[in-house]
Design brief:
This protein has 526 residues and is mainly α. It is built from 22 helices and no strands. The two termini are 33 Å apart.
Length: 526
């Protein structure tokens, strides 16, 4: 086991990185004149910024360390979350994103009001802020602090949590979403570079042999298809849970979707989403496989999540270790900055502006910044409490699986079916979300029934669909405009627009290429 000692040079590089990021936030803050510029970056982001920012928000510190850890303990099955996200992002870019951008909404709850009613908007807004602060932010802070504590054991957990919160929150308070997206772009590049370097060095250490990689894998660890009774990733769970969790995260979660709402045009939003989708596939090589190969080098780790720092300190020289530490901090900050800005965006647009309609933009900008700070403090105060919930961190994905299926049904049902009435969303979420909370407590926390959570997500999907259909089929069809529901005319109009573009700008051709390349890669690991 390597000595996890961070030298002065490495620490200086990491600190310099943080100072640069904070400096960018301060520099961008000079241009913030109103709340929309602060919360949506003035809707001026170009596609590479959108794509890398989406990738960075997804690749949290938990994921950066956790994907390698899953590769170490279970093999490549965890990659199913990533490659299925690619397919969902392609679908999102082609079929869903145009409705979000053309409706000019500022938040996902606001789009629910366009399609349904104000009660659905308020419920989903409250739900989004709650999960963002107490699940996404607090979870990222806690797990990130645990990882940093491995490198800095002399510092207490609360101090490391405070450091991550401040690092991820300060430049958001000053610079807003534009600062988030610019710094996330830099962080995304850094994450890819460090991951690629580690993969290359570990692969060379194993003799640059694919046979050696196969030998290092656990039994069945080089296949994405697991038995139906597998505790971690049963193959039916790909269809009952994984794909629907991807739909929630990539198409309805405002923290993620706001990066695309900030795009300067529909094309830039679509190309950015496709770029983010294409970047999910390489995670197999830059994060998961290094962890898997690490089994051969460190066969007796007490904690599988220690494999990523073990590889860093074993293979990277002084200086590059500092770059890897900066990459880890970048991953932690990318999650925090996105969640904090997204939560403030929902609070301002879905609550403050609706209640106080005559507030000046300077006052709204101040409120936005204050809310970022408040949410940062709440998440930091709650994060240490997670350690008292026995094993709850590993259940975060399960928690979302149980409570988010009503949201998926409401969004997809409303976007692709004109029949659901405007009052169908509220009862679906008002009943489905509490039932999901109770089910999570009974099945996952108390363990009264042994049920793999991906199957539990599938059951919640069926329940939510049942509620949604019951309301829909007992009410008259609403009158809707073309801005909120997909139709044959929508497809035909876009077909004419696409026909005028060169093939390399045609989202459908690009999306098809990404899908085919992804499926061809997946086929190698079945």
């Amino acid at each position: 086991m390597p000595d996890f000692e961070v030298g002065a040079i490495d620490l200086s590089i990491a600190v310099l990185y943080i100072v640069v990021v904070l400096g960018i936030g301060l520099w961008i803050s000079r241009a913030q004149k109103d709340s929309e510029g602060f919360l949506l970056g003035g809707r001026s982001a170009i596609w590479p910024v959108v794509g890398l920012s989406l990738m960075s928000a997804n690749l949290s510190g938990t994921s950066y360390v956790g994907l390698a850890g899953s590769g170490y303990s279970d093999g490549i099955a965890v990659w199913n979350y990533e490659w299925m996200a690619t397919l969902v992002l392609v679908f999102f870019a082609i079929f869903i994103l145009p409705f979000y951008l053309r409706s000019k909404v500022n938040t996902m709850p606001q789009f629910l009001e366009h399609r349904y009613d104000s009660k659905a908007r308020s419920l989903f807004a409250g739900f989004s802020v709650f999960t963002s602060i107490f699940i996404d932010s607090a979870g990222a802070l806690f797990v990130g602090a645990l990882t940093l504590q491995l490198l800095f054991p002399e510092y207490p957990l609360w101090m490391l949590i405070s450091f991550i919160a401040l690092a991820g929150g300060l430049y958001v308070i000053f610079g807003g979403l534009k600062a988030v997206m610019i710094t996330d772009t830099l962080q995304g590049i850094l994450l890819l570079i460090v991951g690629s370097v580690i993969f290359t060095l570990v692969f060379i250490e194993l003799g640059a042999s694919w046979d050696a990689v196969n030998e290092a894998a656990p039994d069945g660890g080089m296949s994405v298809i697991k038995p139906a009774d597998d505790e971690f990733m049963p193959w039916p769970g790909l269809f009952t849970g994984v794909i629907w969790l991807s739909f929630y995260y990539w198409t309805t979660n405002h923290v993620v979707v706001q990066k695309v709402l900030a795009a300067k045009s529909l094309d830039h939003g679509r190309w950015g989403a496709l770029m983010a989708g294409s970047l999910q596939v390489p995670f197999l090589f830059i994060l998961i496989l290094p962890g898997l190969m690490g089994r051969e080098l460190f066969p007796d780790l007490e904690e599988s999540d220690h494999i990523w720092p073990a590889l860093v300190f074993e293979f990277l020289p002084v200086g590059l270790r500092g770059l890897a530490l900066a990459a880890l901090i970048a991953a932690l900050m990318s999650t925090m900055d996105s969640v904090l800005n997204g939560s403030a965006s929902i609070a301002v647009n879905d609550f403050v502006k609706r209640r106080y309609k005559n507030l000046e933009e300077k006052r709204l900008l101040l409120i936005s910044r204050v809310l970022v700070g408040v949410f940062m403090i709440i998440a930091a105060l709650w994060a240490p409490m997670i350690q008292f919930f026995d094993g709850i961190v590993e259940y975060f994905q399960a928690f979302l699986g149980y409570i988010t299926m009503p949201v998926v049904v409401v969004f997809l049902g409303g976007l692709f079916w004109a029949r659901p009435p405007r009052h169908a969303a509220f009862p679906t979420m008002a009943i489905g979300i509490p039932v999901g909370l109770v089910s999570f407590a009974l099945f996952e926390v108390l363990g009264l029934i042994e049920l793999q959570f991906l199957y539990g997500a599938g059951l919640m999907l069926l329940l939510s669909l049942g509620i949604f259909l019951s309301v829909t089929l007992t009410a008259e069809a609403p009158e809707l405009d073309e801005e909120v529901t997909f139709s044959r005319k929508t497809w035909q109009d876009e077909s004419r627009e696409m026909a005028q573009k060169p093939w390399y700008q045609n989202t459908r051709y690009l999306g098809l290429a990404v899908v085919l390349a992804t499926l061809a890669t997946v086929a190698l690991f079945i």
